[in-house]
Amino acid sequence: MTHKKENPYIGFEQGPIRPPSEAYSLLIRLTRNCPWNHCTFCRIYKQKKFSVRPVENIIRDIDLIKVYTDRIAQIVKPGGFADKDVISALYNSFDEKDRVAFNAAMNWYASGMRSVFLQDANSLIMKPSDLIHILQHIRACFPDVDRITSYARSHTIVRIKAADLKQMADSGLNRIHIGMETGSDTVLKRIKKGVDKATQIKAGLKVKQAGMELSEYVMPGLGGIDYSVEHALETASALNSINPDFIRLRTLAVTNGTALAVEARRGTFEKPTDVMMAKEIRLFIESLDGITSTIKSDHILNLFETINGKFPEDKNRLIGIIDSFFELTPEDQVLYQVGRRMGFFKGPEDMPDSPHLERVKQACAQYNVSAQNVDTVINELMSRFV
Question: What span, in angstroms and rounded, lies between the C-alpha atoms of 240 and 369?
Answer without folding.
Answer: 39
